[in-house]
Specification:
Length: 324
């Protein structure tokens, strides 16, 4: 058992977080992580209609009596998003934890705090972590450059970003980016984090609601098989390589790229189809460098048991051997 400020704050047994995963972090996955002793965040924007988030929150409650949260990502989008509607539903449904990402959640902080919601802000730089603490966020989830999805524009890896953030803020830190096993858990705690976030690793679990081809692709690809798209738009996304990604990069290499030039390829709706039908050549899918550490498709319970056992073994055996 590892007790940290993160296990205390969320009221969970294990300092392991399943962060928001567009289209994937639904009730099946969040409840499985919760039942395994961690905490899962369902991604609000997965539900095109805010009311559908309400139904998913209720479904998740039926699948677990443990804590879970909702992720709300503020990034450029091809559709207009009614953020206040999603927030209203979270408040009405008694959600206790919200993970914000992409942009500063300041415009919503008063509303969230007066509803008693704890805010985890996911960001990619020390300066944004400092700002998150200043505006009243309860936790910072800091995303190293290894991470899937949108790892920011500074390209600082977890090994530097976590301790640099620890030196700059006092609130608890969740480490994201590059984590997939018990070694990562010990490493991130050593670097100053209070918990470990995993995204890509949770996609390769039995409960993740995606086609088996998607899970197998995470096993078949290595740490060298991600690509960075949308750098030219300053909205970098780390994705698994495929011919569509090559096409996007080719368009970007021509210069003066506009979102309209690449929208048919990067569209989330196409990515959603890919996750459902398993055609891995169809669109783009976020994936992290930790693909190099994924070799099987366990249940969330098996994964978390294994991570904790590995972490505890390292702490008990390896550290006791080196400290004389
Ligand atoms: P979408 O279909 O609206 O857009 C597809 C991609 O294009 C997204 O990466 C989006 O950020 C980007 N994009 C859209 N308009 C843009 C613009 N004007 N300038 C630059 N980039 C633009 O995306 P979706 O799949 O429906 O996802 C909804 C939201 O969730 C998006 O904001 C997306 O970025 C975000 N998301 C976040 C993560 C993450 O790592 N946190 C992962 C996947 C998606």
């Amino acid at each position: 058992m590892l007790k940290t400020r993160i296990t205390e704050l969320f009221g969970i047994e294990r300092p392991i977080v399943q962060g928001g995963l567009m289209w994937i972090a639904r009730a099946e996955l969040a409840s499985a992580v919760a039942n395994a002793g961690g905490i899962g965040f369902m991604t609000a924007l997965t539900f095109q209609e805010a009311e559908d988030l309400r139904a998913e929150i209720r479904k998740c409650r039926e699948m677990t009596d443990k804590p879970f949260g909702v992720n709300l990502t503020f990034l450029p989008s091809l559709r207009t998003i009614d953020y206040p509607a999603y927030i209203k539903i979270c408040i009405e449904e008694g959600i206790e934890f919200i993970e914000t990402a992409g942009r500063n959640p300041e415009p919503y902080m008063d509303q969230l705090k007066s509803a008693g919601i704890k805010v985890v802000h996911k960001c990619t730089s020390v300066r944004h972590a400092i700002k998150a603490e200043k505006i009243g966020c309860d936790v910072v989830s800091i995303d190293g450059f290894e991470a899937a999805g949108h790892p920011g524009e500074d390209d600082v890896t977890s090994l530097i970003l976590i301790p640099a953030t620890r030196d700059a803020i006092d609130i608890p830190i969740i480490a994201s980016g590059g984590f997939a096993d018990g070694r990562g858990l010990v490493g991130c705690l050593g670097l100053g984090a209070d918990g470990m976030n995993m995204g890509t690793r949770f996609v390769a679990t039995q409960e993740a609601p995606v086609h088996d081809n998607v899970k197998q692709a995470l096993i078949d690809h290595s740490e060298r098989d991600t690509r960075l798209i949308m750098r030219t738009l300053r909205n970098t996304e780390r994705v698994i390589k495929n011919p569509i990604v090559d096409k996007v990069l080719e368009i970007e290499s021509r210069g003066n790229t506009k979102i309209e030039d690449i929208a048919p390829y990067v569209s989330g709706l196409v990515g959603k189809e890919m996750l459902e039908d398993g055609d891995m050549q169809k669109g783009v899918m976020s994936a992290g460098q930790c693909m190099g550490l994924i070799r099987d498709i366990p249940t969330c319970r098996e994964l978390l048991d294994r991570i904790m056992a590995q972490a505890e073994k390292i702490i008990k055996e390896k550290f006791s051997q080196v400290i004389v």
